[in-house]
Amino acid sequence: METPDQPAPHLNDEVDGAANTLTTTKKIEANRRNAQFSTGPKSPEGRKIVAGNARKHCLLAKNLVIDTGPGMEDQAEFDRLLAELREYYKPVGKAEELCVEEMAISYWKSARALRCERGEVTLGSVIPPPPPDLSLVEELFLESNSNLARHGLLKTSTGINFLLKKIEEARKYVDTNGFVPQESLRFLPQNPGPSWLHASDKQALQKALDDEKTELQARKLLVEAEERSQRRARINAAAVPSKTPLERLDRYETSNRRHRYKLEKRLEELQSRRREHELTSGVHKPAEEFFTKQSQDVL
């Protein structure tokens, strides 16, 4: 029986094959170049869809990231964390995937704990500087009550500012009337004694008040320096949270880390069992029932 003649090979087969290969290579290179200009979706709807790609299979982390209110978190940042952990551990099957997902949640909670600690330190170190002037209520109280007003006022820069104001008022009164008013006496040093009232030399009173003003200004600089030093010390003391929030943070993070370490160990066991199963079964894809059992063990 005669066999049909085989078709003669086309003379340009090799040329066509080379051309097709060259064309395919050019297309791949062109696609790579074009991909560099792709920045992803521009519309809010498109970005929302893309952002959901990383967590479309998440069972545990769907409601983890806070997406409303002043404490809103960055969903994209969590998605990157989860993607990087998946890339590192390369989970296979639902059981391994859940372990990796829980690890991402644990790391996210650790970041929250650090933010909480920073907030406690920030709030604790908010120590306002002393006000420049006394309040109206404080002034009225001093005007009507305290005979030891000067002694207390000398302790703070705010008090010294008040004394300087009283010196200015007494100086203007002396310029006009030639003597110190009775209501100003308790804010003046008592070393001169009754001379504040009975001195007949107007110029002597003016000089004494000017000297007192100069002395108060020098004292104010020293008191302000001491206040700044104390304020820095209080800020430094607030660098570690107080006992109650510190204990709360410690319990939270200790439990979180312990859970994460257990997850790492569990994932290592799962992957070890999977690799052993692959070796013994002689296949690279584990049997479905094997992973179903693993998932049941985890859940």
Primary descriptors:
single chain, 299 residues, mainly alpha, 11 helices
How would you describe this structure to a colleague?
The protein has 2 domains: 125 residues, no CATH class; 102 residues, no CATH class. Helix 3 crosses helix 4, helix 4 runs antiparallel to helix 10 and helix 7 runs antiparallel to helix 9. The chain has 299 residues and is mainly alpha-helical. It starts with 12 loop residues before the first helix and ends with a helix. The chain has 11 helices and no strands.
Mean pLDDT: 78
The rounded distance between the terminal residues' Cα atoms is 69 Å
The number of helices is 11
Give helix % range.
Answer: 55-70%
Secondary-structure element string: HHHHHHHHHHH
Radius of gyration: 41 Å
The oligomeric state of the chains shown is single chain
Beta-strand content? under 5%
Query: What class, by secondary structure content?
Result: mainly alpha
Stretches with pLDDT under 50, minimum 5 residues? 6-15, 17-23, 34-41, 46-51
Give the number of domains: 2
- Characterize the largest beta sheet: strand count, sense, and whether it forms a barrel: none
Number of strands: 0
Shape: rod-shaped
